[in-house]
Each structure stands twice: as C-alpha cells, then as structure tokens.
Amino acid sequence: MTPLPMVVPEEGLPTEVTIYEVGPRDGLQNEKAVVDVEVKSAFVKRLLGAGLPIVEATSFVHPKWVPQLADAEALMTGLSADLGERARELPVLVPNARGLERALDLGLRHVAVFASATETFAAKNLNRTLDSQFDMFEPTVAQALDAGVDVRGYVSMCFGDPWEGAVPVRQVVAVGKRLLELGVGQLSLGDTIGVATAGHVKALVAAFGEAGVEPGRLALHFHDTYGQALTNVHAGLQAGVTTYDASAGGLGGCPYARSATGNLATEDLVWFLTGLGIEHGVDLDAVVATSTWMAGELGRPSPSAVVRALGGAGE
Ligand code: HMG
Ligand code: MG
C-alpha cells in the first residue's frame, strides 16, 4: 500500500485548493532533448487521468525562441482528435496576437499571456521593454476576450531577478494591476528563479489586497531552486490563495532565466495538501506513476522528494 501522510488539518487554511499543472509546458520547455509529440500527448492525458483539473499543455511562442514546444499545433491537434472538447479546454501560453491566432485556429478556449515584473527579463524573454510588453498584451487580451476565450496573466520575477536582484513589491503590483485592467481573469505570480521566502509571499499577497486585488484572483507559481516552494505554499494558504501552479515530477525551468530550476513538484504539493486535509482531487499514485514514466523518457530521475520516496525515480 502506498504510504500517505496522516491527515491533521490546520485551522484557518482553505479547505479546497486548485492545482494548476504546468508540467507539459513549463516542465518541458527547458528540456535539451526534444521530447516526441506522442510522449507529450501521453503525458497530458496521464495527468488528466490522474485528476489534475487544469493541465497547461504547451506554448504558441516563436519556435526559434522555444524549439522544444515548436510542435504545439501537432500536439493540440492530436489531443483534440483523442479528447475532443476536453482538449480545447486545456490552457496554452500565447505571448502576442500571432500566438493567439494560432490558438484560435485550433479552437482553444483558454490562453495565458506572460508579463515580466522587471525590465531585464522583459527584454530577455519577450524582446520588449517593461512598458512596451503591454502593447503586445493589449490587443491579444482584447481579441481573446472578444472571442470568448478566458485569459490568465502570468507575472514573472515577482520575488527577485537574476540580473536586477530584489524586485520591489510595488513594481510587481503595478505590472499585475495593468494585466488585470486589460481583462485577464486570474493572475499567476511567478517566482521564476525560486528565491521567494514565506514572509515575502505574504507581503506580496497583502500588497495586492491593499491595491484591491483579492487572493481569489491570484495563483502562486513557485520554482523550487532553494527548496522553499512548499513553505511558500503554506504562506500563500495562510494568506488565502487557493490556486497553486505545480509541475509533475518537479520538471521545469525557463530557457530565458538560466538560474531557474524545476517547478514545485505536483507530488510534493499533493502530499502536503493531503496531510492538511485540503481537498485537491488528485490521485497521488497516478501522478507518481506518470512522473516515473516521464523520468524514464527523459533519462534522468525526478527531482521530486515524494516521487523518490514512493520509489519511482525512473522506470
Ligand atoms: P520578436 O522577435 O520581438 O517577435 O519576439 P516579432 O513580434 O518582432 O516577430 C518576429 C517574427 O516572429 C515574425 O515573423 C512573426 O510573425 C513571428 P516574420 O514576419 O519575421 O516572418 N512571430 C511568431 N511566430 C510564431 N508564433 C508566435 C510569434 N510571434 C511572432 N507567437 C516573442 C517576441 C514574444 C514572439 C518572443 O520573444 C517569444 O516567443 N518569447 C517567448 C519566450 C518564452 O516562451 N519563454 C518561456 C515562457 S515564460 C515562463 O516560463 C515563465 C512562467 O513559467 C512564470 C514564471 O516562472 O515566472 C510563465
Ligand atoms: Mg515558470
């Protein structure tokens, strides 16, 4: 029998959390070896089968910028053939109107734009300035909303930037507010390089609150570079945030932020939430089996502590 943590709820925390799975996108975008489209498709289907309610499937970015996801059309076409309407509900990243057009051509219903909280990362990731990134997002979000498509807004480098160092909380709130004013539904606050600590998480969520943005509009997106991701989730839960991005097996990174390592592992998050008695709807065994299989495909063990503890470092 697979071990599970003893359930001991903690007062004052939400009773239910949404896990927003980003493994096929954030997890695979940084892989050196090109992962076959059939493997990606199987990965997405296995994650859905494990009960993950939202699986971000790929990115409609420039293929030269992220070659690993150059097969976005092929992946989504294949998934539509296999899953029908369910595939069109899978979110994808679109940086601009061209990316949105590609997503709309396939009938997709959920997209995400991704902004930078810092000048340097806006240049490196989007070839734009902090200000001019919004010239790209504005028509993209407007067109998506016109087409009845839901838009998520990411903000990267919310807790620190490898080139600029500390990032003032007010700068992050300003970028987040501008995305919300364009009409994005949910705002995902990214700790792209994994430097956040618990007090900082609470301070940022509180600063958004003071600016009129309730925790229900926010998601938290932690990379686990310094091993702080779960502590940061705990801080987020205490602050009332109920959506957490995670990546099966802890895959991930950003090709335009070299110090970014893997995302918070979905399995580690599931273990943690289960122990707190917080509903998440995910089958831990099925995600571990998926990450174990994926580790075999990638030829290296999963960095997730929970995947390792449950004996699934690689099939
Ligand atoms: P650019 O070079 O400024 O693009 O790149 P452009 O607008 O000048 O267009 C140049 C050419 O690219 C044109 O073609 C466009 O049509 C084409 P031409 O006329 O020369 O033949 N083009 C496209 N082709 C296909 N799909 C597109 C597209 N857009 C333009 N979407 C651009 C600007 C935004 C495109 C580029 O910088 C880019 O693709 N960046 C993506 C970088 C990326 O994907 N990074 C990783 C995701 S973000 C992340 O991981 C962080 C996150 O996880 C949260 C966190 O951890 O913080 C979300
Ligand atoms: Mg990320």
UniProtKB/TrEMBL annotation:
<dbReference type="GO" id="GO:0016829">
    <property type="term" value="F:lyase activity"/>
</dbReference>
<dbReference type="InterPro" id="IPR043594">
    <property type="entry name" value="HMGL"/>
</dbReference>
<protein>
    <submittedName>
        <fullName>Hydroxymethylglutaryl-CoA lyase</fullName>
    </submittedName>
</protein>
<dbReference type="InterPro" id="IPR000891">
    <property type="entry name" value="PYR_CT"/>
</dbReference>
<keyword id="KW-0479">Metal-binding</keyword>
<dbReference type="InterPro" id="IPR013785">
    <property type="entry name" value="Aldolase_TIM"/>
</dbReference>
<comment type="similarity">
    <text>Belongs to the HMG-CoA lyase family.</text>
</comment>
<dbReference type="Pfam" id="PF00682">
    <property type="entry name" value="HMGL-like"/>
</dbReference>
<feature type="domain" description="Pyruvate carboxyltransferase">
    <location>
        <begin position="17"/>
        <end position="288"/>
    </location>
</feature>
<keyword id="KW-0456">Lyase</keyword>
